Amino acid sequence: SQTIHQWPATLVQPVGSPLSLECTVEGTSNPNLYWYRQAAGRGLQLLFYSVGIGQISSEVPQNLSASRPQDRQFILSSKKLLLSDSGFYLCAWSPPPGRYEQYFGPGTRLTVT
Amino acid sequence: AQSVTQLDSQVPVFEEAPVELRCNYSSSVSVYLFWYVQYPNQGLQLLLKYLSGSTLVKGINGFEAEFNKSQTSFHLRKPSVHISDTAEYFCAVSAGGSNYKLTFGKGTLLTVNP
User: Fold this and answer.
1) Which residues in chain B are closer than 8 Å to A8, comparing Cβ atoms?
2) What's the pLDDT tens digit per position in B49-95?
3) Residue A92: its chain B contacts at CB < 8 A?
4) Are B43 and A107 within 8 A, CB to CB?
5) DSSP type of residue B18
């Protein structure tokens, strides 16, 4: 069966510090991968998605970036965090072509102070 | 482009009562529809999905949803709720295609009271 991992689970970082969140998927090959942000009291905002290694599409201009160095690894980064980057970050994957549902990881709670 | 409207931001109900969470969508093409549940400080869990075929879809935890193309709706129902159903529920739509993006509604907080 497939599983998705995210770490860390929680993170408190000062403004201006760098960020690296990691997501890995097990039990599948060539998944589509997604990063979402969920701010308090708001819905899900798609940040990035990837259909293959090194292929990243950005949905929202911001100070965040994403990379996919391996087939089942997706990394969210920032060089300098802003207060507005606080939120709940969710990674998701979707199965190979023909199916459209996404499966979510447990999330990372980021607080920028 | 697709959009999703969840008509109620909060729905309070008593335990063992029936519940309906409403979802309407707009899309210029055929759609695929989903309901997700999110418990506090957790990721989203897929409850059920409509891809094609029967318009009545059954999911996990006793939930079901009905796809109504003429009314562009995909309402979620459960005949008898439990305290443990207290959570945020999200409706989502995909138009398919090559990138498989989902458009989510803003969520409905279901609170089940004893």
Assistant:
1) none
2) 998 888 999 999 999 999 999 999 999 999 999 999 999 999 999 88
3) 44
4) yes
5) -
